[in-house]
Write a sequence for this structure.
């Protein structure tokens, strides 16, 4: 009996990765939760790096909430939007530049970028008034320059609208009409912060609608393409 011919397996295309670098445990959802859910639906791998647990610079984050709880909430929120991994760097707030040096963060992230080869990287905007956000922007841009990163880099904002310095950069609107409800669902994972976050929720809706209006869809998120 003839042996059945071995069929050549079609080469599987590696999944494209999207990387987010942000300061605090909820920035990624507030800034681009809808966009991340959309990319995840398209089959992309979503990797999120959170530098600190966040308790000082966001007035709605309560200090007494334990780190463990904050990590769990971020990971739950990550699951809602389809993130593959949410990684914490454990930096203390207000000590960004010192901790980045001493905790080997620079090397860790460099290796991670080399391993997962993201096609797009998202980070805070350079004109974000929160110092930790600005510090992450600077760190990211310096690192990407150093490794001559060739993918696209986008800036997002958390509460304050993008403007000022980066006004001349191309703006990109992402239609999140289909995933907006998952962004809200993901925000609800921050149970320990929920009572204070709920008072700010109008702004999440307002911005999604305003950006949606500008890009002729129901809900949208906006980014600046920084390189
Ligand atoms: Zn933040």
């Amino acid at each position: 009996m003839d042996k059945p011919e071995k069929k050549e397996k079609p080469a599987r295309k590696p999944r494209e990765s999207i990387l987010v670098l942000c300061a605090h445990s909820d920035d990624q959802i507030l800034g681009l939760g809808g966009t991340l859910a959309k990319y995840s639906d398209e089959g992309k791998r979503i990797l999120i790096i959170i530098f600190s647990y966040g308790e000082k610079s966001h007035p709605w984050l309560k200090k007494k909430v334990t780190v463990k709880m904050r990590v769990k909430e971020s990971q739950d929120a990550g699951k809602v939007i389809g993130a593959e991994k949410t990684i914490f760097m454990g930096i203390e707030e207000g000590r960004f530049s010192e901790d980045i040096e001493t905790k080997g963060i620079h090397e860790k992230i460099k290796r991670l970028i080399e391993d997962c080869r993201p096609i797009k990287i998202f980070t805070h905007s350079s004109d974000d008034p929160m110092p930790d956000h600005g510090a992450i922007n600077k760190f990211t841009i310096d690192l990407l320059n150093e490794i001559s990163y060739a993918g696209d880099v986008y800036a997002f904002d958390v509460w304050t609208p993008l403007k000022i310095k980066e006004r001349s950069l191309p703006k990109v609107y992402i239609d999140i009409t289909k995933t907006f409800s998952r962004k809200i669902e993901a925000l609800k994972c921050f149970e320990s912060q929920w009572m204070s976050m709920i008072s700010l929720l109008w702004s999440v809706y307002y911005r999604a609608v305003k950006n949606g209006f500008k890009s002729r869809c129901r809900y949208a998120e906006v980014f600046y393409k920084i390189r």
About this structure: Residues 131-146 form the longest helix (16 residues). The chain has one domain: 17-225. The pocket of zinc ion is lined by residues 23-24, 27, 54, 58, 130, 133, 158 (CB under 6 Å).
